[in-house]
Design brief:
Pfam families: DUF604
Number of strands: 20
Helix content: 25-40%
Largest sheet: 8 strands, mixed
Number of helices: 12
InterPro entries: DUF604
Oligomer: single chain
Transmembrane segments: 21-40
Shape: elongated
Strand content: 15-25%
Keywords: Membrane, Transmembrane, Transmembrane helix
Radius of gyration: 25 Å
Structural class: alpha/beta
């Protein structure tokens, strides 16, 4: 037995002092460097949180193993489930949010990449090959082998053996993730416990067909590391109980339920079980951080003038400046002209030629169609508004064009009209036509993240001489929202 093992607790502490002093001597200059870096840092594709996660902690060699330290991006392992066939045209979706040398994880493929995929680009997650599920005892009985491979990715990720992970984030390769928002949400949860986080479908029928207590896997579900470890030990036995299940997320939910773990629902995780134009859905997002969007291949492009891939990249231009505000709805009024404004930050702005209550504007306009074309109502898991040709109720729609910093520590997002409304002005007494407005400029704080669930207010200034309307987002005064 070594002398260290025979030493008293006090002696062991003394023996550890040189290492502690060394770590502190490295960490303190590193902290000063980080502060200096954060003050000068302005690149929109990286965050100071990325820098401290990987430069301070990783390069120092003095990894903090304390379980009560705040979760950061280095604690999250992303499990992107794809295939060689899908990766050909979905790679752009994943690369829009993946941060090279910052995010951790892999895209799991069904087979080794062929020459057309090589050399594997650094802009993509590194790849892993899924376990050959034909070797499973249950394989002859499974009704959907592809989905078994997908759920088996939890075990495949665990077997890779990456260290210091607290969370596994499972998602498909046609999913957009907002990783800063994910980290902020994960900080609410205890990663040392069994935790299962996800979002349900927007479609009543989808939830009824599978489960109202299931994290839909395309949009992404999240497992704490202890839960992923527990699931990995029981997954193959569990699959033998449920060979008849048809989809991977239902398999995962069933196995997790057998462990005794229930779903924690986060409203910002979006399966997007909708069809056609989802602009009405995105323009009235709930007051929850946007975490994910899925199913880009089956909906119209998010922006009318762009294709699907360009649209995702364009949305991320705003997200790279401030993820906390993405799609967050702010409603305000210009009463001298009887105009109502609804801002979905980083995506769209709607202008109405009448004063419409917030309770109505918070309901999404039904620009989309149900996921199941033959489904019977109710279709959706939320209330909607019908689209009317009434000029007092139909919005003028402006889409996100650009984002930039201003000289006074604000973010300026600009929204432009892509097509005329083609309706006459609202004829109500005192109402003014919004047809002349060609551009809307929205100013928001640049240095502070929007608090989750926080409601903000705004001031409106219309410049008739330039056909530009300015909206300044600010904190609400006492009783202002309910006035």
């Amino acid at each position: 037995m070594s002398s260290t093992n025979n030493a008293s607790p006090i002696q062991q502490k003394l023996q550890q002092l040189p290492l502690v002093i060394l770590c502190k001597s490295i960490a303190i200059p590193g902290l000063i460097l980080f502060i200096f870096y954060a003050l000068l840092f302005s690149h929109p594709d990286k965050r100071p949180s990325d820098f401290i996660s990987f430069s301070l902690i990783k390069s120092s060699g003095c990894s903090n193993t304390a379980t009560d330290s705040p979760t950061n991006l280095s604690h999250v392992g992303f499990v992107v489930i794809g295939s060689l066939n899908s990766w050909k045209h979905r790679r752009a979706y994943t690369e829009s949010w993946w941060r090279s040398n910052v995010t951790r994880g892999y895209v799991f493929l069904d087979k080794e990449p062929t020459q057309e995929f090589l050399p594997w680009p650094s802009t993509s997650p590194p790849y892993q090959i899924n376990y050959d599920i034909t070797k499973l005892r249950v394989y002859p009985k499974v009704v959907n082998p592809i989905q078994v491979r997908m759920v088996h990715s939890v075990l495949d990720m665990y077997r890779v053996g990456d260290k210091d992970l607290r969370w596994f984030v499972m998602c498909d390769d046609d999913t957009l993730l907002l990783v800063d928002n994910l980290v902020e949400v994960l900080q609410k949860y205890d990663h040392t416990k069994y935790v299962y986080i996800g979002g349900i479908s927007e479609s009543v029928k989808s939830n009824a067909d599978f489960s109202f207590d299931m994290g839909f896997g395309g949009a992404g579900y999240i497992l704490s590391y202890p839960l992923a470890e527990a699931l990995s030990k029981t997954l193959e036995d569990c699959l033998e109980r449920y060979p008849y299940l048809f989809v991977s997320d239902q398999m995962a939910q069933s196995c997790l339920a057998d462990i005794g773990v229930a779903l924690n629902i986060e409203k910002g995780i979006h399966q997007v079980d909708l069809h056609n134009d989802i602009s009405g859905f995105l323009s009235s997002h709930p007051q929850s951080p946007l975490l994910s969007l899925h199913h880009f291949d089956v909906i119209y492009p998010l922006f009318p003038s762009k294709d699907r891939y360009e649209s995702v990249g364009h949305l991320m231009k705003a997200a790279n400046f401030d993820q906390s505000r993405m799609l967050q709805q702010t409603i305000c009024y210009r009463r001298e002209s009887n105009w109502s404004f609804s801002v979905s930050w980083g995506y769209s702005t709607h202008v109405y030629e009448s004063i419409i209550p917030r309770s109505i504007l918070r309901k999404p306009l039904e620009t989309f169609r149900p996921w199941e074309r033959k489904a019977k109502p109710p279709f959706f898991m939320f209330n909607t508004r019908w689209l009317y040709n009434n000029p007092c109720e139909a919005p003028h729609v402006f889409f996100f064009e650009s984002v930039e910093y201003t000289s006074n520590n604000q973010l300026l997002t600009t929204y432009v009209r892509t097509s005329p409304r083609n309706l006459p002005p609202c004829s109500a007494t005192g109402n003014h036509s919004a047809d002349p407005i060609s551009r809307i400029q929205v100013f928001s704080p640049a240095k502070t993240r929007k608090k989750a669930g926080g409601i903000e207010c705004c001031d409106v200034k219309h410049k008739a001489e330039t056909n530009v309307t300015e909206i300044s987002i600010r904190s609400c005064a006492k009783n202002e929202v309910i006035a």
